[in-house]
Amino acid sequence: MNRHLAVSTEVRAAIATYLRDRRGTLVEISDAVRAVRRRVPHVRLSDRQIGDAIAAEAVKINCAVFFDGRKDA
Questions:
Q1: How distant is the alpha carbon of residue 4 from its chain centre?
Q2: Residue 42's beta-bridge partner residues?
Q3: Which residue, 38, 39, 56, 67, is most buried by CB atoms nearer than 10 A?
Q4: Is pLDDT of 68 > 90?
Q5: Tens digit of pLDDT for each residue in 8-51?
Q6: b or e along 8-36 (b: 16 or more beta carbons within 10 Å of the residue's beta carbon)?
Q7: How far apart are CA 57 and CA 72, in angstroms?
Q8: Are 65 and 54 in contact (CB under 8 A)?
Q9: DSSP for residue 22
Q10: Amino acid 4: pLDDT
């Protein structure tokens, strides 16, 4: 897996919109990944790559995010 694929402007915009809509709340990264996939269904990035982009954007706009490390059964 290439973890350094470029994240498209469309995906970055979807991430920024999702996080800004939820500013002031604690955002779970997996929920944000699902929301981005719904807004940009043709994205070819892995969940991990989208999650990394979400975390990076959250730092830029001072939005609190967390990752629930439990695996869904």
A1: 15
A2: none
A3: 39
A4: no
A5: 999 999 999 999 998 888 899 999 999 999 999 998 999 999 99
A6: eeebbebbbebbeebeeeebebbebbebb
A7: 25
A8: yes
A9: T
A10: 59
